[in-house]
Design a protein that fits this description.
With 472 residues, the chain is mainly α. It contains 19 helices and 6 strands.
């Protein structure tokens, strides 16, 4: 019999029972559900809402149930009891009888599930943040190794200006820095304890919400009981943050796919992180990157699905909100899996620096430097721009590059060119002279790396504080 079956005269239709059940996916909340119930039962005893010895018996048996679940190799949950909350309560009641039925005093499944989800999301957010920090370290490692690795930078996927691989990595490091900062902000906003909200209007019992908050390591209690049971903003915010992070991983994945192609040959993935073809023996495929690129759309879909579910729900709790779990769980699992595989794949990737340098010497990516050379000689920039454009056009006809043109060729276009033009066109000099903050000069990239390393140190300290709260 259902625990809520008192006013019903018929058993639930089997199809409805299956449709209504969530235990097949919310079973993963068992630790949060039991931990929250232990805090709730302890509070009930402290407040005299139930007898102290009853609270102690409930707590003792909840701890045993938790241990039994974690040590069991079998599926210990019964779909007859529809969700993790009912399953745990039935397990408890089967062990200690009527005393177990007192656990749900001054509590609703509405605030119970709101609590479980917040506890779970807080824990998983920390796991994702840890993985993101490790990937940030991988970007720093690659940047440090490649301060002088000249490569072409692109706009419109056309070779544009010279940069370095170290500079390139710092661009992604900045993206990931913002991703990690968003996770920190999300954790701060979700750090509110909803238990005590009841079904929607609290209860008439003298519950001590602050005591439960302290037991469970939350910073604050939710300030409105209606909002406490119907809020899923923190899930949406996390999924939005994860979608942005996946977008960044997808962009870098696309770059790696290009770099590993025979058309580019800037990089080669380690055999351990590549796959082959069932028919073409020469193939070495970047499947990891392609899957991350594809799974990005999946995380976007999880976010859009929950946004759509929530968009027209009246206060307070509605059964629609059961749909939050599969979307949140899938987004979390997907991002963790992607970060876990991307970091070692990236660290073991081999760069073909000669090919990068060769590509940088083609495509006239030092044309802007050539124009800047003339500007420093007193030529207005727009005139310098037109002069270099003519030079490039001549090179295209002759098959030359700016570096291989003779001084006579330069002089035929403008008398302002001198022998020092070749120094200005040297790709290493082109990079080294870009010393403006944010630029690719090795010294400047080293400064950027230092700031990211400071950020990593701060982020690890913040993560330790967050995890310390979870352990409380």
């Amino acid at each position: 019999m259902k625990l809520w079956a008192g006013r019903f005269q018929k058993e639930t239709n089997d199809v409805v029972n299956d449709f209504n059940s969530s235990i097949q996916f919310d079973g993963r909340l068992y630790r949060e559900d039991i931990t929250g119930s232990i805090a709730h039962a302890t509070m009930l005893g402290k407040q005299g809402i139930i007898e102290e010895h009853e609270a102690e018996k409930i707590v003792e048996n909840l701890k045993e149930i938790l241990k039994d679940i974690e040590e069991s190799d079998l599926d210990v949950f019964d779909p007859e009891y529809e969700d993790i909350h009912m399953n745990v309560e039935v397990m408890l009641t089967n062990r200690i009888g009527a005393t177990g039925k007192r656990l749900h005093t001054a509590r609703s499944r509405n605030d119970q599930v709101a609590l479980d989800m917040r506890m779970y999301v807080k824990k998983e957010l920390c796991e994702i943040m840890d993985l993101a920090i490790e990937f940030e370290k991988a970007l720093v490692t690659k940047a440090k190794e490649n301060l002088d690795t000249v490569m072409p930078g692109y706009t419109h996927l056309q070779r544009a200006q010279p940069t370095t691989f170290g500079h390139y990595m710092m661009a992604y490091a900045q993206m990931l820095k913002r991703d990690i900062s968003r996770l920190e902000d999300c954790f701060e906003r979700m750090d509110e304890m909803p238990l005590g909200s009841g079904a929607l209007a609290t209860s008439t019992y003298p519950v001590d919400r602050d005591f439960v908050r302290e037991q469970l390591g939350f910073a604050r209690i939710t300030d409105n009981s209606l909002d406490g049971v119907s809020d899923r903003d923190y899930c949406l915010e996390l999924m939005s943050d994860l979608s942005i992070m996946m977008m960044h991983l997808s962009r870098l994945s696309e770059e790696v796919i290009s770099w590993c192609s025979w058309e580019w040959r800037f990089a080669e993935l380690d055999d351990a992180y590549s796959t082959g073809s069932s028919i073409m023996p020469q193939k070495k495929n970047p499947d990891v990157c392609e899957l991350i690129r594809g799974k990005t759309g999946r995380v976007y879909g999880d976010l859009m699905g929950l946004l759509t579910t929530m968009k027209a729900l009246p206060l307070a709790y509605n059964k629609d909100m059961q749909e939050d779990k599969e979307a949140v769980f899938d987004a979390i699992d997907t991002v963790k899996q992607c970060l876990e595989v991307f970091t070692p794949m990236f660290l073991t990737m081999t760069l073909r620096k000669k090919n990068m340098r060769k590509a940088a010497s083609q495509g006239f990516i030092n044309a802007t430097d050539c124009a800047d050379y003339l500007v420093k000689k007193g030529v207005p920039f727009r005139d310098a721009y037109m002069i270099v454009g003519r030079l490039v056009n001549n090179c295209l006809r002759s098959g030359d590059t700016l570096e291989t043109m003779t001084l006579r060729d330069f002089a035929a276009i403008s008398k302002d060119f001198g022998p020092d033009v070749y120094e200005a066109l040297d790709l290493t000099n082109c990079v080294n002279e870009r010393k403006v903050p944010g630029g690719p000069a090795p010294k400047e990239v080293s400064r950027q790396i230092s700031r990211i390393e400071d950020f990593i140190e701060d982020a690890e300290e913040q993560l330790e504080r967050m995890r310390g709260e979870l352990r409380t």
